[in-house]
Amino acid sequence: MAEEASSPTKPASGKLLIEANVGEGFWRKGPNNTLPPPDMVGPYMRNRAVPVEPVEGRKAWIIGSGIAGLAAAFYMIRDGGMKGEDITILDTMNVAGGSLDGAGNAEDGYIIRGGREMNFNYDNFWDVFQDVPALELPEGYSVLDEYRLVNDNDANWSKARLMHKQGQIRDFSTLGLSKSHQWEIVKLLLKRKEDLDDITIEQYFSESFLETNFWYLWRSMFAFENWQSLLEVKLYMHRFFDAIDGLTDMSALVFPKYNQYDSFVVPLTRLLKEKGVKLQFDTRVHDLDMIEGAGGRTVVAIRSERGGKDESIAIGPKDVVFALTGSMTEGTAYGDMDLVPVLARGNTEPGEDSDWTLWKNLARKSPVFGKPEKFYGNVRGSMWESATLTCKPSPFVDKLKELSVNDPYSGRTVTGGIITFTDSNWVLSFTCNRQPHFPTQPDDVLVLWVYALLMDKDGNYVKKPMPDCTGREILAELCYHLGIVDQLDEIAANTKVRLALMPYITAQFMPRAAGDRPRVVPEGCTNLALLGQFVETSNDIIFTMECSVRTARIGVYTLLGLPKQVADISPTQYDIRNLLKGARALNNNEPFPGERLLHRLLDKTYYAHILPPLPEQEETIRERAEAELSALLGKGSQALGTVFGWLDQLRDGLRNISK
């Protein structure tokens, strides 16, 4: 009897590959492959798999209560059939949410270490939150319902995305790319991922590229430093290629009503607690005891410190463990209006009392756990600082109103995302999201967020690097770039500033090579999955809530033996419409080379609508198309007339077929 043929989703062994990878081959339907395409999303992927193994008697331990840990608990209950009381989440802090934070009050000042720009195709993230009861809407509605209600009725966009010259809006209507800059992007998109190990952004792109509108928009939106990973930039370009035409005015983004903690952590933890999930705080896990045998590696105990005392948690033969590796916000140093943050972490070693310790100890056991030092070992390269402003009416608020899409007190979109000062020595940005940003925020208070990328440059107004500044001095630098520094005293009297200096906030972007990050379930691990921003997935990016949820979903399905696949990233990057409109956006909203030829070919056919509209009248399209073809074939070429005759014949034929 012939052996069953293998496929990208079902190898010859017959074991289902939980994590789909469209890069290993695309779907070709046949009797040996019963699964949909590896990057298919939608209702067909909403099936609930029947567990292969019973969950009775099984317990789960989750190390870290960020969105990845919370999502792991959610998937074990919803898809794995586990009871909530059999799941325990351990965390160093005394509040859930990890890096998704939001705290404070109007008197002392609010604080949010970071914000989240979100996209329509966060398929795993929305898969969770379509089943999480809404924060404020009545019973029966979900967080997704709530999110759509806000964003469908309040479009996001920015009218002041880039600024310079102390208060002037810089022209950001196009990406500002020359033909050579466009070619740099195209070549990067064509490169194989495997060819970009340890290459930095500035090693690849030209100096002039790094001064374009595109790069100011891109680096400030995603927080890339020029010395960081070119591979990650490439992955981001593929992930968000469908949104590139909305990059300038940020119309491609959607934002929550409130800060990330209240919008997502509060409703999800509320659901998990109702299901019986236990959260144990003040517990720092520093190692996992393992036994090895028959090519497998099994966790038998969790080593931790709780309340200053060592503690060991025994892991049963059926139990599973999920662990966060590394932390973006570990070692955050705080400051305020008059206090400069004092960083406790060294440049190359975070110390044994850090959230990196567990990963370091795992890496000592086997190369399958990666190389954490590639990410934590250069604080100067991964650090930046943010400031949260709690503002009462002042000349600062008056200036904000000029730059806002809607009145800041209206509850609607305000700045539509960050505003970046392109002539700032710090590459300073600020944003005001919908207000109130906290559910109990007073009506006369606004909460804004400020951050900068460069930590080693003196400010343009305050002649110090940002980490050496108090909140008052950072406020002064911001007011200088807004052209209102002469009113600083009145502004400061009505503003509270709280600071967060984060040594590892972009550690996940540091240059890396294959094997530096472990897989979600490292080779040989029988009951351990790794979660968060420092693990490897097939094609997804990092520094998003979506990728954290993806790692949780892959881990749960794998360890619980659920016969269900986690789809690869949304296939929007392959959609010909996105490729065409992306090419137009990269060409500064002008028709890209050859676009008029495509119009000549497809005009009046069913497929005409896939092309962006041309700016010219129809009678001039042929002239422009001829000019394009002349540039390709040479003026006076005999082929020119032949090709146009062929195009006309083909178009007439297509038109007749479509009738």
UniProtKB/TrEMBL annotation:
<dbReference type="GO" id="GO:0050151">
    <property type="term" value="F:oleate hydratase activity"/>
</dbReference>
<dbReference type="InterPro" id="IPR010354">
    <property type="entry name" value="Oleate_hydratase"/>
</dbReference>
<keyword id="KW-0456">Lyase</keyword>
<protein>
    <submittedName>
        <fullName>Oleate hydratase</fullName>
        <ecNumber>4.2.1.53</ecNumber>
    </submittedName>
</protein>
<dbReference type="InterPro" id="IPR036188">
    <property type="entry name" value="FAD/NAD-bd_sf"/>
</dbReference>
<dbReference type="Pfam" id="PF06100">
    <property type="entry name" value="MCRA"/>
</dbReference>
